[in-house]
Amino acid sequence: MTDMNAPMQADSAMRRSLSAPRKVAPPYEQIKRYVMGHIADGTWKPGDAIPSETEFVKEFGVARMTVSRALRELTAERVLTRVQGSGTFVAPRDYESTVLDIRNIADEIASRGHRHAARVIALEASGWPTAIDELELDSGPVFHSAIIHMEDDEPIQFEDRYVNPRVFPHYLEQDFTLETPNVYMVRVAPIQRAEFRIYARKPDAQIRRHLAMDIGEPCLMLWRRTWVGDDVATAVQLWHPASRFHLAGAV
């Protein structure tokens, strides 16, 4: 997700993209969203048993393997827990909140008694196919921002974010030196759910320069997508120098 030079698209292309029909999610993804929706609205609470695979097959009119995939992925994401011979249950809330808690980096830095500053590298429209696919849109452009977050003038995070213009149509008009994208998006349209992955990666030369890293120094990279309703709202990569950053939490 480092296409810094994606060209600005014409206004007419933007209007076409905003009016284009939405891509229909595959059946297993529809089942996942159904389960997440029932958990989010409190219908199914932590520890509650959810319907059996047979009941999902009847409800959605799909093959058992489709249901199995949906429940297997939700189990891997720690949203559900499956007990042999007993069924499938909503995972404990403590773990769920650990997974879905999305903290604002400016608040994290302030909590340490330090000063946050941001430098915007890119704020533009992009037609990058991978980003369009991750946002589950039929066509672009999408919005793109690249921001360096600093703690007491030392860079600690490179934020490379793609945003759904249907959810945040005024994203490109914001000043992200005054508030982070996280603060802006939560204020405009709070997320309903998220998925993420964490990797140990070597950054490319561009990211390495922005983070003032030595050649060969590894990064901790967090990839995350968030949803507002049925729309994928944003897809972001957060790159952190391993020598200056760590993830912590408690369950």
Automatic annotation (TrEMBL):
It comes from Paraburkholderia tropica. Residues 25-93 form the HTH gntR-type domain. Keywords: DNA-binding, Transcription, Transcription regulation. SMART domains: HTH_GNTR, UTRA. Gene3D superfamilies: Chorismate lyase-like, Winged helix-like DNA-binding domain superfamily/Winged helix DNA-binding domain. The keyword Translocase does not apply. Transmembrane segments: none annotated. GO terms for molecular function: DNA binding; DNA-binding transcription factor activity. Pfam families: GntR (PF00392), UTRA (PF07702). InterPro entries: Bact_HTH_transcr_reg (IPR050679), Chorismate_lyase_/UTRA_dom_sf (IPR028978), His_ut_repres (IPR010248), Tscrpt_reg_HTH_GntR (IPR000524), UTRA (IPR011663), WH-like_DNA-bd_sf (IPR036388), WH_DNA-bd_sf (IPR036390). GO terms for biological process: L-histidine metabolic process; negative regulation of DNA-templated transcription. This is Histidine utilization repressor. CDD domains: WHTH_GntR. Signal peptide: none annotated. Residues 1-22 are annotated as: Disordered. It comes from the Bacteria.
